[in-house]
C-alpha cells in the first residue's frame, strides 16, 4: 500500500500563474478530500468527493479554485490565477465510506505564490 | 458555523507524565470524533477514533467522549519526547463526510 500520493511536494510560482496539484488515492478508498492548512486558519476543508462525484465544494474559497476527479483513483486541484494569499500547504486525504473511520493524508504540497 | 475548539497551547509536560488534551465541539449532529497527531512539517496521522460516550484505550492513548457536554479529550500516559507534536481534534457529521478540525494543541514532552 503506497499511501496517498501527492505531487509536487513543493511548488513556487509567480502571482497570476496557473497551479495544478495532484493526488492519487489509496486503492479501494472511495472518498477524497482536499484540505488547506495555514498557521492562521488551520486545516480547512475545501471540497470532497465520494465515488468520483463532488459532494460539497462550499469550502472552495473562490472561483479561482477548481477540483476534478476524472477517475476513481486520481484528483486534481487547480488554482487559476494564483495569488500570494493562496500560499499554504495543501493536503489531500482519502478514506472508505466518507470520513466515518478517519482519513489517510498525503504528504502535502507546500505552495508558495510570490 | 460548526466549530471544534482546542487550546492552542503549548502544553509542556515532563517525560513519564500524563498529557491531557481537550476539545469541545458545537455541532450536536457530530457522530464520530478523531485525534490526529501532526509532527512539524509532516501530514496529520490518525491515532484515535471514538464514536460512543465513555473511554477508549489503545496502548498509551485513551480517548474520552461526553456527548452531553460536547467534550472530547485525549490522555497520553507515560509521555515520551517522541510524543512532542501538534494534536488535532476532529469531528465528523452524521453522513460521515464532513470532518471539521480544531486548530490543534502543541505538546512538548521534556526529557
- One letter per element, helices H and strands E, the order of chain A comes to EEEEEEEEEEE
Q: Ends of chain A: how far apart?
A: 36 Å
Instruction: Give the amount of beta strand of chain A, in percent.
Output: over 45%
> How big is the Rg of chain B?
13 Å
The assembly state of the depicted protein chains is heterodimer
Would you identify the regions of chain A where 5 or more consecutive residues have pLDDT less than 50? none
Number of helices of chain A: 0
Globular, elongated, flat, extended or rod-shaped: what is the shape of chain A? globular
Average pLDDT figure of chain A: 93
Structural class of chain A: mainly beta
Largest interface, C-beta closer than 8 angstroms, per-chain residues: A-B, 23 and 22 residues
Quick one: biggest sheet of chain B?
6 strands, mixed
Q: What is the chain-wise order of helices and strands of chain B? A: EEEEEEEEEEE
Task: Return Rg of chain A in Å.
Answer: 13 Å
Main beta sheet strand tally, sense and closure of chain A: 7 strands, mixed
